[in-house]
């Protein structure tokens, strides 16, 4: 133990491709067209993000429905110091957002400017990128009212 | 993501980047400082005498800590115990395809080292005798990158019986 331990920066990085399958392919293709598709279950409730199978019954799902581009924050956390590769470079909120017409909430970023603009129950709407490519990063949320 | 605005989006392209500060620890630091001097160190288990290479902090079989007195110096020659011919590119591996990855059982060691072999694809085989090809000494650092690859050497193949426990 005479000498100190060696230490060095180490970056692990890799790229990969994943085929989206029929449901997510439609979902991301619609995002490119600035539309959001959820998945309707047999009981009429709508899953967002859409799923290929009903998580309760396991039955196959294929009825996709267009949702509003606005919704309600059901939970959130403020990110004061964004890290590289997070969706925004300025401070932002990660939030669970339930879109109008959906029965489940999904995680995304809210570009609210400051933490005091955030509250559970607040309305948010999508702000689309100038160029959409069919990715979840094609939009972020902003406060709606 | 798609190249054509009219094609359906069928593929997700992921990119993972994780930044670490890697701390080698006592044993790997000792090993890498030896590699900087052009030496291979293994660690001999005081219980059963098995030699672990690259050296590590304790015996995984007997949970005995390896101290400085467990250290043994090993040659840079060994035997190919298994290999694979790689024909699929990896972004982080700059070698020209196809290339050969090998598990080399260094003489005197009981665990094999994964590396790359510079040889004809038709020549590589289990039992082939190989040796480390080191970078020029002026470029040596505390890194396994000091070894560019392994190369075949003009020695008779090792007898299967001598390495069959190490495949």
Quick overview:
The complex is a heterodimer of chains A (145) and B (167). By secondary structure, chain A is mainly β. Chain A is 8% helix and 41% strand.
Largest sheet: spatial strand order of chain A:
7-6-5-8-9
Kindly report the average pLDDT value of chain A: 95
* Oligomeric organization of the protein chains: heterodimer
For the record, the count of structural domains of chain B works out to 1
Structural class of chain B: mainly beta
Tell me what the structure shows.
The complex is a heterodimer of chains A (145) and B (167). Chain A is mainly beta and 145 residues long. Chain A has one domain. Chain A contains 1 helix and 9 strands. In chain A, the strands form 2 sheets. In chain A, strands 7-6-5-8-9 form a 5-stranded antiparallel β-sheet, with no helix packed on it. The mean pLDDT of chain A is 95. Chain B has one domain. The model of chain B has no long low-confidence stretch (mean pLDDT 92). The interface between A and B is medium-sized, with 31 and 29 residues.
Tags for this model:
heterodimer; A: 145 residues; mainly beta; 1 helix; B: 167 residues; five-stranded antiparallel sheet; three-stranded antiparallel sheet; 10% helix
